[in-house]
Write a structure and sequence with these properties.
Elements lengths: L1 H27 L4 E7 L6 H14 L3 E7 L7 H5 L10 E4 L8 H12 L3 E5 L10 H7 L10 E5 L5 E4 L8 E2 L3 E7 L13 E7 L2 E2 L2 E2 L5 E8 L8 E11 L2 E6 L5 H4 L2 H16 L24
Parallel strand pairs: 1-2, 1-3, 3-4, 4-14
Antiparallel strand pairs: 5-6, 5-11, 7-10, 8-9, 8-12, 12-13, 13-14
The structure holds zinc ion.
């Protein structure tokens, strides 16, 4: 009797320990998401911005990040033959690349990878790349192209999406760099849920007149491009996503320079957008300290 009672107590004790371990394991996090950043050519300082992207993605605690660097511009075929990123080893791919067209096998690999359910994240000038690659243009929807290339998309003051036909209105450009307000247009989307409806972004280029096939675009945030800063007097898309087969393509045209990428708002949407393209869910919290409608907030420098 005594022994049985003891066994019972021990059994309960073991049960508590086991369930305690399970609870804490669930509370810590799921397995890290594997992210591949692609760089190597850009009309921007990719050698400075890739480490910033990698650093804040890693610090979120949600990702392990590898970087694949292409050959430099105008490299011979042999150099490109060695460039075969293994997209399928990763849950999502982030492009910080704007340069020479990738070899055909790499193009077909990316198309198969995204249409099969892989994620793709496009940051700033990565949407300037590959005007001649039709499937890439479908993935990004809008790219840095001339007015004759394709449709333009803006958002009216009442939130309605407005398409401007090919050839009408301005093509791709930007006015002078400045701090500007980002307006969230879909506050229920997992990436945007909990982010303030309007927040002030650190000095950046405000892209306007982006052009492309613009099919199945889901606009998540816009910014008003003011005439005074050389803009278009329209609400231009800043963040959007497009389904491509089973995959998701998440684009932000924010992120011109190191200082723009220090914005807590930028880092939050790239972190959450990257997670969402990989898993379809967002668990990375919105930081308590976030830019407000009138005040920017940059990540603190490493001491
Ligand atoms: Zn730029």
């Amino acid at each position: 009797m005594m022994n049985l009672r003891r066994l019972g107590v021990v059994g309960v004790f073991i049960g508590v320990v086991v369930s305690g371990v399970l609870i804490s394991k669930n509370a810590v996090a799921a397995d890290p998401i594997r992210v591949l950043i692609v760089d190597g050519q850009n009309n921007h300082n990719w050698k400075a911005t890739t480490p910033i992207l990698k650093d804040f993605l890693t610090k979120s605690g949600r990702f392990t990040v590898d970087v694949v660097t292409s050959p430099p511009g105008k490299s011979p075929k042999e150099a490109w033959d060695a460039f075969r990123p293994k997209f399928s080893d990763y849950a999502t791919v982030l492009s910080n690349y704007n340069g020479d067209l990738w070899p055909e096998p790499v193009q077909r690999d990316l198309e198969a990878y995204v249409s099969g359910g892989g994620g793709l994240v496009i940051v700033h000038a990565a949407n300037n790349a590959f005007p001649e690659w039709a499937e890439f243009n479908k993935m990004i929807g809008l790219g840095w192209r001339g007015a004759g290339y394709g449709n333009r998309v803006t958002v009216a003051a009442d939130g309605k999406v407005v398409e401007t036909a090919k050839g009408e209105g301005p093509g791709a450009g930007h006015g002078s760099q400045h701090d500007f307000s980002v307006v969230v247009r879909d506050r229920e989307h997992p990436v945007m849920k909990g982010i303030p409806a309007e927040w002030m972004h650190v000095k950046d280029e405000l892209y306007h007149g982006q052009r492309g096939p613009a099919a199945s675009m889901n606009i998540l945030a816009t910014a008003f491009s003011a005439k005074q800063t050389g803009g278009t007097d329209a609400h231009e898309p800043m963040v959007w996503w497009i389904p491509y087969g089973k995959g998701k393509v998440f684009t932000t045209v924010l992120g011109h320079a190191e200082y723009s990428m220090k914005c807590i708002g930028f880092q939050t949407i790239v972190n959450r957008g990257t997670e969402w393209t990989a898993t379809g869910k967002v668990t990375i919290p919105v930081p308590e300290k976030f830019p407000t409608a009138t005040e920017t907030l940059a990540a603190e420098e490493k001491k």
